[in-house]
Every structure is written in C-alpha cells, then in structure tokens.
Amino acid sequence: MKRIKLVVAYDGTNYCGWQIQPNDVTVEKVLNDKLTKLLGEEIKIIGASRTDSGVHALGNVAVFDTNSTIPGDRFSYALNTLLPEDIRVQESYEVDQGFHPRHCDTKKTYEYKILNRQFPLPSKRFDTYFFPYSLDIAKMQDAAKYLVGEHDFKSFCSARTQTETTIRTIYSVDVSRSEDVVSIKVTGNGFLYNMVRIIAGTLIQAGTGHYEPLKVNAVLESNDRTLAGPTAPPEGLTLVEIQYL
Predict the structure, then answer these.
(1) Of the listed 11, 24, 33, 52, which one is catalytic?
(2) Is-contact 59 187, C-beta < 8 A?
(3) CATH class of this structure's domain 109-239
(4) What span, in angstroms and rounded, lies between the C-alpha atoms of 208 and 162?
(5) pTM for the full model?
(6) Is pLDDT of 158 > 90?
(7) What is the dihedral of CA 101, 103, 106, 112, to 10 degrees?
(8) Average pLDDT score, the chain
C-alpha cells in the first residue's frame, strides 16, 4: 500500500464544491469515481481544502492510498485522460503513509478577483465577480492592513462555522489592480468558513467609501459578523496554493 499526493486545479462553476454531497456532483466525487475506474479498487481521497460550490482552485491538494504499481509521478498523466476538462491534476507523487493534507502546518493563498468596469465581459463571467461601481484601491489597501497578523476572525466567518477556535494568522493581504480586474490575494495559516469571501466583501465596502478603512479594525475587535461586509459571490474566489511547512 502506498499514498499518492495530487495537486488539483479545477473550474468550480459546475460543481457543488469539493466535498461529497448527497445527490450532487462534487470535485471529490469525480476524482473518487475516476480513480476507482483507473485502478480497479475503491478509492476515497482526502482533500486539504473543502472549497465551496462555485469556487475554483489552481492548487488544491488530495491524497489517496492504493495497491497500484503505477509510479507516483505517472498518476497525473493517467488520471487526466479520464477527467472532465474542468478538472486537471497538475502533479502527483508518492508521500509518506503518515502524511495527511489537513493535519500539517501550511500556508494557504486565496485570490479574489473583481471585474470592475461599466459592463460585464462574458469571457470573465466564471472566474471574476462583476462589480460596476468605482473602487478606491488605496482605501482597500489601507483597510487590508488591519487584517494582517493573528486575530480572532469571528466577525469574518459564517454562522455555520464549526471550529474549536476562530483565531487565525494572516501573513499578507495584497490588493492590486490590473486594467479592469481588482485582485485581493490573502495568505494565512488557515481560513474559516466563507472567511476570504467576507474579507473581500468588506474590502469592497471600503473601496466604495461605505466603510472607512479604520472600521475594519473595529469589526475585528467586535466579534460581530453583522458589522462586516457581505459575503462576496463564490465565482471570484480561487484557491491558489497550499504550501506545506
């Protein structure tokens, strides 16, 4: 028996998130089904990040155990021949049997992209959030700096969050603009349910002038979800990378 690690990219538009759901198509289910077909043994993968419905990934991580003699680095080639075009394995290799993708120290990076122009662009409808109102990038950058560091992010997570603690460490929040696309890139040691989308919604409020940047600090200290901005739509969010420390 050996354990194989996969780095997986996907367009989440047509999936009800990563995690298996009753009667719904998810990324995890597709990977399980295709690996089972490929190997002739029942495969159940373990994913590092359970992205929500409509959320994308460039580098989610999963592992599975198999008796197959296929070399670890060849699984990416074999599996990609069976996968739909909106899911692709970027790399594969064998890891220690004790490696668990959710039980390690990591840095995760998410990017939230906003299409900020007068009219939508059809080609960007699946991977950006269309927002037609003016955004002040400097104010968004100013607001973002209050999120960096170790904080209780209870104000920035969904009421459905189930976790022992809402304290997380954010290493960086970078807000930038390239032509019509505003990017919010967040790197941290872990994220709560809907946390990045709520951060994006809050920074958008700062960008429109609805919130003064300093209000973000008050929202953090309040531990009150109702004071933060709205949860931004899922299509703008991509899990960029998971770094294992």
Answers:
(1) 52
(2) no
(3) alpha beta
(4) 32
(5) 0.96
(6) no
(7) 70
(8) 96
